[in-house]
Write a structure and sequence with these properties.
- With 258 residues, the chain is mainly α.
- Helix content is 52%, strand content 0%.
- The protein starts with a helix and ends in a 34-residue tail after the last helix.
Length: 258
């Protein structure tokens, strides 16, 4: 379990990487990416997925090149794996309500609430238009991991698995859209930042539905296990067919003559 200070430390590390790599995402995107990897059918190691996450431009640089600082890399990996283990534990723990303290709660922010707390001179329509809706970056990060390894998220033959895969991806795709409904509440009950509501009821329900879908996806992939490659057996030549070794002789006079 990471503390608020440790999440802030993660964001500072990402800020430092962004000075060199420019395209390094913010933590909320990383949180969604991490959740998708936890649900993935094939276990992957950090040196495979972190270059994809932290560069996000297809470069896939070696992890040592991404960080260029061994101590920074080690600290990031320590915090990352602790969050990974916490998310995996939450998704594997049976709960009946997201109010349960053991339930998975994505580490997301209400950017619009923080904006509403700014002095009025700093609040402009242009700035508001650039703000992500609640849960939006988390969903974008989740789908970025799905799109990076589409073969691991390909439609399974199992009908129940097909249903949950389609449901999960559809809900998350909807969450990547802007929240254009009337805001009626704050994302966090104890949020003292926003003077006005910043999240719609519909958005909050969509966010909760997406979390439950992630639970179902995690259980579905765990039940099915890693994806199995289909092996196609090569047909054996008939006796009078040309031999498959390429000798030009008939099969019965060549490899099939033993």
């Amino acid at each position: 379990m990471l503390t608020a200070d440790e999440f802030n430390e993660l964001e500072r590390i990402l800020d430092a990487l962004r000075l060199r790599l420019k395209v390094t995402p913010h933590w909320e995107f990383c949180e969604g990416f991490l959740a998708a990897l936890v649900c993935c059918r094939r276990p992957m190691q950090p040196d495979e997925y972190l270059p994809v996450l932290l560069t996000t431009d297809g470069a896939r640089l070696p992890l040592e090149t991404v960080f260029a600082d061994a101590a920074l890399q080690q600290r990031f990996l320590e915090l990352w794996m602790r969050r990974w283990n916490a998310v995996a534990l939450a998704l594997d723990t049976p709960v009946t309500t997201l109010e349960d303290p053991r339930a998975y709660q994505p580490e997301v922010t209400d950017a619009r609430a923080a904006y509403a707390a700014l002095p009025s001179a700093e609040r402009t329509p242009a700035n508001w238009a650039q703000l992500a809706s609640f849960g939006q970056l988390w969903a974008v990060g989740f789908l970025a991991a799905v799109n990076a390894w589409p073969e691991e998220w390909a439609g399974p033959r199992n009908k129940a698995a097909q249903h949950w895969r389609a449901t999960t991806l559809n809900l998350l795709e909807q969450l990547t859209l802007d929240d254009t409904d009337e805001p009626t509440l704050s994302a966090f009950v104890d949020n003292q930042l926003a003077a006005l509501p910043t999240v719609s009821d519909q958005r909050m329900k969509a966010f909760a539905d997406s979390i439950w879908a992630v639970y179902n996806m995690r259980e579905t992939w765990r039940t099915l296990g890693p994806r199995v490659e289909t092996v196609h057996a090569q047909a054996t030549p008939r006796r009078n067919d040309p031999c498959s070794c390429g000798s030009g002789r008939k099969f019965k006079k060549c490899c099939g003559g033993g």
